[in-house]
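WARN retry 2 of 3 for item q-0093 after timeout on previous attempt; input resubmitted unchanged.
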Amino acid sequence: MIGRITGLLLEKHPPLVLVDVQGTGYEIDVPMSTFCKLPDIGKKVTLHTHFWVREDVHLLFGFMTEQERALFRQLTKISGIGARTGLAILSGLSVTDLHQAVVSQDSIRLTKIPGIGKKTAERLLLELRDKIDPVAILSEAGAAASNVDKDILSALLALGYNGREVNRALEQLSEGVTVSDGIMQSLKFLSKVK
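OK item q-0093 returned
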């Protein structure tokens, strides 16, 4: 398996790039999120790669970050999501945006990606729901900056509320609230919403 490639960037033609590694040129398919971050032609580039083997073709996919590659691997494990669809998803949404869509169960966001219909979006959300840590993702996005917010978030998720409901509840909390008061305020808010 080829896990990473470092070499000279020779060509860029979306979604394909050509990287020269000591005289051998590797054609690598990349999502647009990676393509936009590539250096100029002739510069050194490092890509985290995934080697895709099928009976009729061997393909190399490249990603600027390990998180993109890990998410690509998760996506392609889902029934009906192939490598091209995985690339399309990563081209349409950043890793953080996709994680937020999964946490908030936002299928509309996914259906805006070419090739992703309503059923595929719902299947993606269902399959990825348990594989993504909402606390880590919301922290990345700045939505749960304090430990108090994280504790409230964890408690509400443990009670069975989904990410979208929890986000709305966290947004209405007053500044400097304690964990217990925050949970109580959130539960009151959520009971009115339902």
